[in-house]
Specification:
This protein is of the alpha/beta class and about 475 residues long. The strands form 6 sheets. Strands 1, 2, 3, 4, 5, 6 and 7 form a 7-stranded mixed sheet that branches. Among the domains are: about 140 residues, Methylthiotransferase, N-terminal domain (Rossmann fold, 3-Layer(aba) Sandwich); about 60 residues, OB fold (Dihydrolipoamide Acetyltransferase, E2P) (Beta Barrel), CATH 2.40.50.140. A hairpin with a 6-residue loop joins β18 and β19. The chain contains 15 helices and 22 strands. Bound molecules: S-adenosyl-L-homocysteine (SAH) and FE3-S4 cluster (F3S). The site of FE3-S4 cluster (F3S) has 10 residues, from α6.
Length: about 475
Amino acid sequence: MEKIIDENKQGTTLITEANATNTRKLFIESYGCQMNFSDSEIVASILAKEGFNTTQNLEDADLVLVNTCSIRDKAEQTVRKRLEKYNAVKKINPGMKVGVLGCMAERLKSKFLEEEKIVDLVVGPDAYKDLPNLIAEVDDGREAVNVILSKEETYGDITPVRLGGNGVTAFVSITRGCDNMCTFCVVPFTRGRERSRDPKSILDEVNDLAAKGYKEITLLGQNVDSYLWYGGGLKKDFKKASPMQQATATDFAKLLRMVATAQPKMRIRFSTSNPQDMTEDVLHAMAAHQNICNYIHLPVQSGSTRILKEMNRQHTREEYMALIDKVREIIPDCGISQDMIAGFPTETEEDHQDTLSLMEYVKYDFGFMFIYSERPGTMAARKMEDDVPEAVKKRRLTEIIDLQQKHSAYRTKNFVGKTVEILIEKESRRSDAHWSGRNSQNTVAVFPKEHYKVGDFVMVKINDCTSTTLLGEAVGYSENQE
Ligand code: SAH
Ligand code: F3S
């Protein structure tokens, strides 16, 4: 479960190479989804031009920025705890200023300043280019807030500084916002309407990463399959575009083909796919390009058609199963993962059984499973009572997790005896004599280092496995190795 960085994980501090002329120190940390981590790289890039070098020492910081997540109540509580810590540090470093970025900033707006005395600066996800002005205000002793959401901002013109990474894998954001309005989800409120980034700026970024030695990119968006570039602007305004713009538009399948063709030696991944927007054309693009990884994160949230309807997910249980059949037909060895929510309002025991039976049908490689958390302002919060008792939610979640563990074990066992291509990303967490990397299906493999190094594509014979990890030995470089 290395792919998605959940809020339970301690926020990651980001460091950049120091610029000798910069004099101020920025401590920036991120919570929540991959998009937040990617955004923090954009913020660090903007502030590097404003005289800030990053530091890993909170105590040294002139400016502390925390990129926040609102997806579940627990995510917000984690950030509140972090603010308490900043408060303690401020007692020994009184000049330190504190800014809140991301989804909580957007959700709470200037209320943040009232609720948390430590906060000087509140900046929403579309307002990062305004940071230089906002910081100038704070320097003058005023509080500063910008939470305006944009119809156009994609930060396509900003080259992110790659922070704290391994130099091998990188995120490239391709869309911002979400138009789906799932009734449980706060994202459309905190990240605004959906817009796509110019494919040319995406290709430039990918080519630049390749030139710097990166070997794998993940195209990022709340709903990547909905990607649509017709010259800029909101997805919902596509209908108003000129016939010429409409005819020459780039959709996600086309973008995938462009990126895969431009860098045939690079692995391409993408996240997240929403079932109703995933086209067969995307599956054919995946099948046609060996370098597009055979892996789809395809959240379903529930196996009950009635609950899916209440969630405003735009498909039924049967349609989702038909999509899974299509995936398996076009890409037989595709890894598939899920997100599930246990205890959505009105969920009955029968609905829950539908979720378990859907899982049996798909046998996901892995998944991210959550208890429903009511989010203020969402349709579910306004129209539905959060009526499933906490104990029932917990029990259902445990059943979902237990079943997933069984399926993960089944999937990893399928690789035993096979030889798979692994891109080496880092040292194994358990042993400094072993490398860790992932196969095309996004399953982690661990094997003895020998003479190989980070960034190598190697063929690994899988001899054993746990429910989440493949264990093996390298038998040589893959054809992909330069
Ligand atoms: N499309 C997005 C989804 C972001 S939210 C993406 O890029 O992944 C990630 C997951 O959090 C969702 O798929 C859902 O399973 C879960 N989630 C969202 N809102 C939630 C809520 N109110 N309570 C519990 N889980 C939630
Ligand atoms: Fe949220 Fe649904 Fe969009 S889960 S991010 S509203 S696809």
